[in-house]
Every structure is written in structure tokens, then in C-alpha cells.
Amino acid sequence: MSVLLLEAIIFVNWASLLTILGFWVTEYIL
Questions:
Q1: How far, in Å, CA of 4 to CA of 30, rounded?
Q2: What DSSP state is assigned to residue 30?
Q3: How many domains does the chain divide into?
Q4: What's the CA gap between 25 and 23, in Å, rounded?
Q5: Average pLDDT of the residues in 6-12
Q6: pLDDT 10s digits, 15-24
Q7: Domain range spanning residue 25?
Q8: Distance (Å, rounded) from C-alpha 4 to C-alpha 25?
């Protein structure tokens, strides 16, 4: 269970990081 929870947290962190990077790149280009 703890391993699945850890993987879920890492996945959410990567998703939020990619979202922030995507937003920053979009703002930079526009």
C-alpha cells in the first residue's frame, strides 16, 4: 500500500510540475 501511495504522490508531483512548466512556456512564447 505504501509503495502505491508513494508512486501516486510522485505521479501527482510530476503532473503538477509539467503543468507549471507548460504554463510558463506558453506565457513565454505568447
A1: 39
A2: -
A3: 1
A4: 6
A5: 96
A6: 999 999 999 9
A7: 1-30
A8: 31
Cell 510540475: give the residue.
17
Please list, residue by residue across 1-30, b when 16 or more beta carbons sit within 10 angstroms of its beta carbon and e when fewer do: eeeeeeeeeeeeeeeeeeeeeeeeeeeeee
The model's confidence at residue 30, banded by pLDDT at 50, 70 and 90, is confident
Place of cell 505504501: 2
First-last CA distance in the chain: 43
Q: For residue 21, how far is the Cα from the chain centroid?
A: 9
HSE at residue 12, side-chain half, CA atoms within 13 A, is 6
